Amino acid sequence: MSQWEHLVEQHAILSVVAGSRAFGLETAASDTDRRGVYVAPTAAFWRMTKPPAHVEGPLPEQFSWEAERFCELALKGNPNLLEVLHSPLVERCTPLGTELRELAPAFLSRRVHQTFGRYAQSQLARAQARRERDGEPRWKPVMHMLRLLISGAALLETGVLQTGVGEHRDRLLAVRRGELPWEEVGAWCDRLGDRLDRAAAGSPLPESPDAERVEDWLVSVRRRAL
């Protein structure tokens, strides 16, 4: 055990299952990806060696963020962190974790247009490079790239982040299995990108997240963790 894993074991306020299982896109071979948030004791920040901003473990495929770092990244519209707040598969949730999940709308803004879009573009670029090098891409990341565009567009259209993929599930799983031609996947990606752009123009989401509300919560957490 690393010297910091106890922060997750003793001070986690939220732990969820993320990734394919949270989206209903798992297969028999899928890992169980766990993501969470812990609150380091306030007094630990008084020492010269500060608590880490994140910790891997102690379980396999487990990754957790300290509350302040989590809030910082979620306010920027990071898709991975926003999805932690909306995962339907919650394994641990303390009263502070409940407060954080109830705070989820404060993190949402039209910034997700850029963050979801940029992440999808980077995944597509990597997939294209691998296809040119090896003859075909890694299909699992391609599936998640499409899933992210679907999720981002729906979020901008409705103001609500949904983890389920609904009617798109079978087609996304077909992409994961490599059953769709690359040209068809590319055309679908283009259509979803256009949908994301259109949704941003008329989104009910605010231009910026409610950083003051999030910071007030974080300050209250620090006081209670003293």
UniProtKB/TrEMBL annotation:
InterPro entries: RlaP. This is Nucleotidyltransferase. It comes from Streptomyces cinnamoneus.
